[in-house]
């Protein structure tokens, strides 16, 4: 009995032994660039929808795609819990960003960078492999304020055309090589619009070393791109990881005021740090 009482006292005195660390909530979200041709779904009309969805989900960290600078600034203005960073795909701030957002009250940004999915990855705006637009990665290394745990988030957007399959495989190999070069014991999250489906060659290249939060939990296949119509057949937006346990994976399909915040559904994964 004395030993049992002593053990209970120890657990109460050291919370980290009594309960698992709080999981990390990650979101991948293609926010859709500002296109005048979107009519009732153009950015000025749907900005409040998107920021309302954003605040409701309240993820710890978010990898976005197709983000323009004024969209990122509008998100932070509407939800000051966040900060964001990233260059656009041409190396400046006038085009699409792979912007990474993080909760300033939960995470500290330690290091950040980017590279291009090309034969010259350090050259901003570089294009290889026959696709029409620059494609890139924006990444950040973070420390969690509550317990000092560190991880790296890698965020990207792959080529979109049907004929770009070979380019997507090469892009996946670039991302996989970057992850492999990180310290082996460092947890990693990869978010993105991969413009490909589970089972594709690009998917197999990445999931050779990374866990897909959706399939790891046995979720039935579902779609993420819906073109503002709400009907999605292809799951092209993924949250992949290394060094985490997959706890929960969802696709948020909620409307705001009868319409959707973007032409993609956001994908949310709850990941628990594996014990050292």
UniProtKB/TrEMBL annotation:
Query: Ranges for the Endonuclease/exonuclease/phosphatase domain?
Result: 27-264
CDD domains in the record: EEP-1
Please give the InterPro entries that the UniProt record associates with this protein: CCR4/nocturin_mRNA_transcr, Endo/exonu/phosph_ase_sf, Endo/exonuclease/phosphatase
| Keyword match DNA repair | no
SUPFAM superfamilies the UniProt entry points to? DNase I-like
Question: Which Pfam family, giving just one, matches this sequence?
Answer: Exo_endo_phos
Recorded GO molecular functions are:
3'-5'-RNA exonuclease activity; endonuclease activity
Q: Key word Nuclease present in the record?
A: yes
Gene3D superfamilies in alphabetical order: Endonuclease/exonuclease/phosphatase (3.60.10.10)
Using the record, list the residue span of the signal peptide; answer none if the entry has no such feature: 1-18
Name of this chain's protein:
Endonuclease
